[in-house]
Specification:
The chain is of the alpha/beta class. 26% of the residues lie in helices and 21% in strands.
């Protein structure tokens, strides 16, 4: 599903992206994917925003503090290139650094992605490049901007394209390589459209971007019409996270954008999605947590991005709100939902199992014994396998009920191991006195 309003908005402000950021210019290496038995972790989380420092009384500093104090580590602020000059850009970066936030700079919003870099049609129109005496071509402007940003201590990297179509991959790749040549040390994020082309579970809707030298992103916004549905929120995100992990190259940074907005607040997006805007709603706290849990249990994201701050806490006074977005009125509730879900502790990753004996009477050698397990899966997780052992002997049972015959007398240990869909196991035991 093409979403021009959504793309136009995110082109107008920006996207967010991954990972821990240290002091100084930083080359970020992706951690190895967790092994099947390793409990998931919550990666750094960031948020989209729209705050033009030239229209803000304090250059967006108080807004950045609020986001940083809440726990967000990264922000991409689209309007940063709309009116800000180089000094104002640096001041914004410094305010973000003071708030403990790293910045991804939305270069895709400058028009340079689509421009002929050998031409000069954008020279003079990009405010941040004012004062660049050597900027004679669009390529010179790009080099000047990247040169100013790469030395800022809390630069995460660059947001280079948002939901590009397959037929634009060569154009995107050329831009990626140009930025990489100017700054090889900071990541280059391209956000694929996770819900486009039917949200293909094979990942084909983003696979064409994986060969690029980028941090690969995908998005999912599962809360639409109807009442709360935690399972749907989990399942939709799990599909995207799994497909992202499937198509990403080894070591490639992975980013997933999740829903912190209401479809009905964007009439154009609502129409494109075929929704009744009055029936849409902002996600509940439980649906926010379900999205996050799905991202970290079904995939290996290096950063989770929440879309978008302006639909949680609204636009700052004096900011220019696009006509195709509503100003939220229930900001306190939305803020509570987002923080309560995004930063909730992960649920226990291990399934909980109980074992009971269904056989009556004494347990004897050669006599059939029946044991039964009741496994209570963790939220959003499906129990996949049961493994039974009597002492050191593996029993031929693969379901929650196991019928077997002891071969020898004495006290023996019956062990049940329950594995969930990430092969994380819980074992329970019962001692049996087997009589001759």
């Amino acid at each position: 599903m093409a979403r021009p309003a959504h793309r136009a908005l995110r082109l107008a402000w920006a996207v967010l992206a991954p990972l821990l950021v240290a002091l100084g210019a930083l080359a970020v290496a992706a951690p190895a994917p967790a092994s099947a038995g390793t409990p998931p972790r919550v990666p750094p989380q960031g948020i989209y925003d729209s705050c033009d420092p030239t229209l803000s009384a304090d250059g967006c500093a108080s807004r950045l503090r609020r986001l940083g104090e809440a726990g967000f580590k990264v922000v991409v602020n689209g309007p940063i290139f709309t009116r800000a000059n180089a000094d104002q850009l640096v001041a914004y970066a410094q305010a973000a650094e003071a708030a403990g936030i790293s910045v991804i700079y939305p270069l895709h919003g400058t028009g340079l992605l689509q421009a002929d870099l050998s031409d000069n049609n954008l020279v003079g129109s990009i405010k941040v490049a004012e004062g660049c005496a050597t900027c004679e071509t669009n390529g010179d402007v790009l080099a000047y901007i990247v040169g100013r940003l790469r030395v800022l201590p809390n630069t995460w990297g660059y947001y280079l394209a948002d939901e590009p179509r397959r037929d634009k991959v060569d154009q995107v790749n050329a831009f990626v390589e140009r930025v990489k040549a100017l700054d090889p040390d900071h990541p280059r994020l391209v956000m694929g459209c996770g819900i486009c082309y039917g949200g293909d579970p094979t990942g084909s809707n983003i696979a064409f971007l994986a060969p690029l030298d980028i941090a690969l992103g995908t998005d999912q916004y599962p809360v639409r019409e109807g009442g709360p549905d935690v399972k749907r929120a989990y399942d939709k995100v799990a599909q995207n996270a799994a497909s992202l992990a499937k198509v990403a190259r080894p070591g490639q940074l992975q980013v997933i954008a999740l829903q912190a907005w209401r479809w009905g607040d964007s009439p154009i997006d609502t129409e494109m999605a075929g929704l009744n805007g009055d029936n849409t709603r902002f996600p509940t706290r439980e649906e926010i947590q379900a999205q996050r849990d799905a991202a970290v249990t079904a995939g290996h994201p290096d950063l989770i991005l929440w879309y978008t701050a302006t639909q949680v806490i609204g636009w700052e006074e004096g900011q220019q709100r696009p006509s195709y977005w509503a100003q939220p009125t229930d900001t306190d509730q939305r803020w509570a939902n987002l923080l309560g879900g995004a930063f909730a502790p992960l649920p226990n990753d291990r399934p909980v199992a109980q074992m009971s004996m269904l056989s009556r009477g004494r347990v004897e050698v050669g006599r059939t014994v029946v044991a039964d397990a009741r496994a209570f899966r963790n939220p959003y997780r499906r129990v996949m396998r049961y493994r039974w052992k009597l002492g050191a002997r593996r029993l031929r049972c693969a379901s929650r009920r196991c019928a077997f015959r002891p071969r020898r007398a004495g006290v023996q240990r019956l062990t049940l191991t329950v594995l969930n869909d990430r092969s994380v196991a819980t074992a329970v035991h019962r001692s049996l006195r087997v009589r001759p």
